[in-house]
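If you are new to this repository, start here. Below is one unmodified record pulled from the training split, so you can see the exact layout before writing a loader.
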Amino acid sequence: MASLKKRIPKPDLSKYDPTPLYLYTEKDSLNRVTVLKETAKDIYLIAGRYSGVEGDARLYTPLTDEEKGEIERYLRASHKDALINHL
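And here is the target side for that same chain:
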């Protein structure tokens, strides 16, 4: 069974900085995790691992709870007061 992909519609991407932040987890240091930052705000979206495009949306493979926590800890280390969301 194929893993469920989460979608971000391309029009929604305009509210994020054009250059994403890429982080790696300890468990999977080969496949980067995409983190998007809202333009002019200290709000981050942990999107997951990029997996392609479908129609008018980018697709991301969701992270495990452990990986989400790890990425959030990395972000908190340098952006303590940031609002962090998960796709």
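Two things worth knowing about this chain: The chain has one helix and six strands. The CA atoms of residues 46 and 86 lie 5 Å apart.
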